[in-house]
Amino acid sequence: MTDQLRAIRLSEARRLEALRRLNILDTPPEQELDDVAGLAGALLGARYAAVTFVDDRRAWSKCVRGRPGQPDVAREHSPAWLAITAEEGMVHTAVEDVPAIADHPAIAELGLVTVAAAVIVAPDGQRVGAVELGWADALAYDGALQTTLQRIALHATRLVELRAEVAEYRRFIELNPDAVTVLDLEGSIELANPMLAEVLRLNAPEDVVGRNFLELVAPEDRARAANELARVLFARRPASQMDMRLLRADGSTVACSVSAGHLRASRRSLQLVVRDLDERIRGEEERARLSEQLAQAQRLDLAGKLASGLAHDLKNLITVMSSYLDLAQGSVQDLAPAVGNDPIASILDDFEQLRRSVDRAGTLTHKLMQFAGSEGSTDEVDLARAVDGVRNLIESALGPGVMLEIDLEDDLPRVRADAVGLEQALVNLVMNSNDALPHGGTIIVRARHTDHPAAGGVTSGPNHPVDDQRRYVRLSVIDDGTGMDDETLTRAFEPLFSTKGAARGTGLGLPTVLAFAQQADGIVDLHSIKGEGTSIALVLPTVASAASPDVLDRQRPVGGKRVVLVDPNDRARRVIAQMLRSAGYRILPATDGESALRILEEQGGDVLVTELALPGIPGWRVVDRARGQRPDLPVLVFASAQAPDRVTDDVRTLVKPFSSDRLLRMLAEMLPG
User: Fold this and answer.
1) Does residue 657 have a cis bond before it (omega within 30 degrees)?
2) Which of 152, 248, 343, 656 could form a disulfide with 315 if both were Cys (CB 3.0 to 4.6 A apart)?
3) Domain range spanning residue 274?
């Protein structure tokens, strides 16, 4: 293909695209263009006058004078095509000189001898048609005829441009996200977009076209609206904004803000932009609600950070207290042969009361850590024992007429989870069921083995897929209460969302349960039907069965095993070292990770016991580097400032505060022999 042919085809493609955008072919006559044809014929004494457009095959006359109908001919037979292809954009010729145009119906039927045409140009500069004229006698070409015809063609071009702008304006109005309408001088609606129909709850915008806009204004606002619109329409004010109520199709009213401005075209008109104030008010209320939730979340976050700092110090103090209490109990028991059992029993009873107080303080500290947003520790938990441990607390808090049934399968396997977090989650679920039974009913706490984690409800849990090869325990809380509707069901796990009101709930209950399940690598499976009740289950993976810690002898010989003990807190490190020495361990103390790694390299060690919160190298990095040197090294980590951010099968974790009995038992489990 030659460059010249390629350029011709590209030019033709652009011309056809311009014609397509005008959307002018095969449309009815338009008064403005009809007037152009009539004016051209009258001024130049032509027997035939037409406004003709040309596509890739044909010439189509939109408006014709001198012949009825709108002829549709091959474009090669049209004077308009001659003008489009002429370099100067105009043609004046005798019919006999161009045999092709003699087949044009108007030329043949009217016996035309001379024809002329001047091009019509689209807004993008492409030639799309022409104003055509024809005479029944020979007409000499002169400058006056050329000038007049070109001016008429220019007028037609401007009308085509205006037509395109009007079409574009209509499209802009239709796609506008605001409700828009255009009024004439009488206030009648000439144009309306779909958003106006939506605001007024109409089937289509055409339902209001032709109606007076004031008919849509609520009666109490009509006089004020008419006054404001008149001021703008007659240019005493360039624009105006007013609030008024509009009538909807169903008879209700909607508060709207109406902005009015006048349009200057061939005749004056008024454009109105209508905004739904009710929608804006709802949006502002929603923003205010979200802002309050954000502020509450920020307050909780700040309180959590403060709680985390306090809990860090408290855990170390309670660990020291608990450890010294263990040592004191052992020392008192050693005095029994000298002073007798009776006074020793009394002292030991006092120690037991102190022990309970220390344990309660430890539990409160653990809850502070949970409030701070840290995860709890993970350990092997006996579900039956956990349920039994909170049963009395739950039963005492139930409302009148609410019955609690415990249905636990025999020989339930253990799960790896935070024991305190499990108890808190269970209490949360039972209390939610209790609130759903205002007139009494039954709550069932049920636990079963299962191979299928989810059961088709609203399921939330870890982002990774659950393992089909694992076994699970399904701990369910079932009630026959009020249940949840679909909206509540979909938002149940949303933080700060609550149906109980500010006085009865924070909206943190189920999110806390979900956080516990995710930490335990499990899921929460929720089923609920409005008016029929709710079933919500914690589905937790089981751990391989092992000997119960209670049957392990913490006093079994350790043969002077060497413990590399890492803790930056001097008091905690000293008391833990004393506890371990009393059980026969040799202690290699360190205050930071670098020192611990150096001890392991130079002196060796049988077990690494380290705090996670260390200066310099973090605790888990110390574990990784130590295991790099000795892959089989037993490791026990303490968590005080925060819970461990990972759990592995061969690294044990112990959350401060803890008793010496628990520490020694765990070490006995870890060490061989």
Assistant:
1) yes
2) 656
3) 176-280
> Does residue 272 sit in the same domain as residue 297?
no
Which residue type, as a one-letter code, is found at position 382? D
Q: What is the pLDDT of residue 82?
A: 92
**How much is the pTM?**
0.40
**pLDDT of 312:** 65
**Same domain as 189, residue 138:** no
Beta pairing, strands 48-54 & 635-639: unpaired
Rounded-to-integer distance, Cα 531 and Cα 392, Å: 29
Phi, psi at residue 530, to the nearest 5°? -55, 125
**Are residues 163 and 198 located together in one domain of the fold?**
no
Check whether residue 160 and residue 30 sit in a common domain.
yes
**Average pLDDT, integer, range 259-275:** 76
Query: What's the rounded Cα separation, in Å, for the pair 121 and 150?
Result: 12
Q: 179 Cβ partners below 8 Å, 6+ apart? A: 193, 195, 196, 198, 199, 273, 274, 275, 276
Mean pLDDT of the chain: 80
Quote the pLDDT of residue 552: 42
Percent of the chain residues past pLDDT 70, beyond the cut: 81
Q: How many CB atoms lie within 10 A of CB 148?
A: 16
Which tens digit of pLDDT belongs to each residue from 584-597? 889 999 999 899 99
- The answer on 182 and 108 residing in a single domain is no
Q: Tell which wins on pLDDT, 620 or 119.
A: 119
- Position 33 scores a pLDDT of 87
Adjacent-strand bridge partners of 652:
636
Instruction: Give the chain's domain count.
Output: 5
Query: Domain of 181: which CATH number?
Result: 3.30.450.20
Distance CA 482, CA 605 (A): 60
Domain C-terminal end among 480, 510, 541: 541
Q: Is residue 511 located within the same domain as residue 589?
A: no
